[in-house]
Specification:
The complex is a heterodimer of chains A (301) and B (255).
Chain A lengths: L1 E10 L8 E4 L2 E3 L3 E5 L6 H8 L7 E6 L2 E2 L5 H5 L1 E4 L11 H12 L4 H9 L15 H13 L5 E5 L7 H18 L2 E6 L2 H4 L5 E6 L2 E7 H10 L1 E7 L2 H8 L5 E3 L5 E5 L3 H12 L4 E7 L3 H9 L2
Parallel strand pairs in A: 4-9, 4-10, 7-8, 8-9
Antiparallel strand pairs in A: 1-2, 1-3, 1-5, 5-6, 10-11, 12-14, 12-15, 13-14
Helix pairs in contact in A: 4-5
Chain B lengths: L2 H12 L4 H23 L12 H35 L2 H4 L6 H37 L12 H28 L3 H18 L12 H4 L14 H24 L3
Helix pairs in contact in B: 1-5, 2-3, 2-5, 3-5, 3-6, 3-7, 6-9
Chain lengths: 301, 255
Amino acid sequence: MKIIETQNLQFGFRKDHLVLKDINLKIERGCIYGFLGPNGAGKTTTIRLLLGLLTPNSGNVKLFDKPVTNSSLETFDNIGTMIETPSLYEHLTGLDNLEITRKLKNVPINRINKVLEIVKLTNAAKTKVKEYSLGMKQRLGLALALLSEPQLLILDEPTNGLDPQGMIETRELLHQLNEEFGITILISSHLLSEIEKLVTHLGIIKNGELVFQGTIQELHHLKSGHSLIQIDTNDNDAAIAVLRNYYEINFNNDNRLEIAFQKREQISHICKTLVNEDLEIYYFNVTSNDLESIFLNITNN
Amino acid sequence: MSKIAKAFSTEIIKSKNTFALWLTFIGAAIIPLMVLITYVYNWQLFIPKIGENPWKEIFIRSFNGITLFTPLFIILIIGLLFNIEHKANSWKHIFVLPISKSNVFVGKYLFVFFLIFFYFVIFVLLTLAIGYLLGVYEEQLFFLNFTPDWSEIFSYLTKFFTSVMAIVGIHFWLSFRIKNLIANLGIGLAGLAFAIILNGKGSLTLFLPYSFPIKMLNYESNSYHFLEQYHIVSLIYFIVLSCLSYLDFTKRFKG
């Protein structure tokens, strides 16, 4: 079952300028979906459309297989959200902030202690939010999102402004929520490195268009296609002659041979082939693009 | 608990530790305190004629005070209540909670009326307390020998409340649409300044909402009709503006 599904979603703040073009998101139950894109690519706008906080020019949004409207109150019961910075009343305590959302979500009072425990804010519950650090505010935002034991968490850049330790803690917490409670998570970020260890699926948005959508394995597969071996031998023509039956070979700027490979066994095969031909290898360099480079390649064409 | 009651109860929590709550107490106390100072320093001027009820004079003076002060209080209180949401950037959170926009709107409107009602109650109780205090302070003022005319007080407050409803309607709408508190206050002050210049006179004052409370300075009740024409116009303004702002809030406002 798809928890989130959009069809040809289009949106523009002005009629003549679309900021989102034909967004077709498909997010399955139980997955952690990373929604990636550079700043200004349209991530927050897409999330606002998903939640009915903006109205699309065309296309439609379904959450839990139901269209989203202003009156999707039942649907909102199953969703926890944190869009950009958490919405917190800073003149109130953490407990008061939770109490406001608890009342409106009709959640039992004992749930407050539970979520405070989950986000490790029990000791700071009675402190005014204005005295919280940025990390504590983010965690309180998460606690608000978790109050009603949601089936879906939508988090817009939840690690923004957090220090590395805070980022790791948030990641671990989200992992735990997904593993233990089966919560589907949509998490947006502009840094792949921040979420690549967390997500199972990815959507990459650039200039308002979804340029990649798939599993993390599919992105890894894309990564393989971008890995290269650079070789220089005493006789490059002979090297080309023996390798061209197996691989596509190019020359790079330094006049070295450049071979794209998919699997690491191929590295060994290339090596053995050259040695068997008695060629002397002067230079052998494997450059494997990491996911971040792939992401940058995708978002920069 | 109904959803509206829940929305209302969250408004009470949100107002904790805010200036809005203090303003209700201080605003209601300010005029009775000024009246107290006036009486203490010039008590000889307020000795009633034989058989005259001194409560009438003290309440007329207090009413004149709140006639000028209340519109400002209303503009500020509504602006401050919405500023709590704007400052916390909380609309995006509230609108994805399982509560309808209608309930949020009504809950907030009820809380505004609750605070205004509370403000009037504190004002009347303090004026009463000050009257009794003055009676103890100076027997010749005869406050202890008479009782206030409650029907007159209730009638005045009902009419005065009706006269400010147009301002409530305007500023409730403005305050969720305009995030800048100072801008809201500026619009209100400009309206009030215009109303004070007009001094409640002329045909324009019949349509300028900020003029309606000013028209109640030194008010003497009309023996033919309970409500004057401007009270009716104020009510019409309130109903029309509330309906329009309700539609705007529920259909168009995205936070």
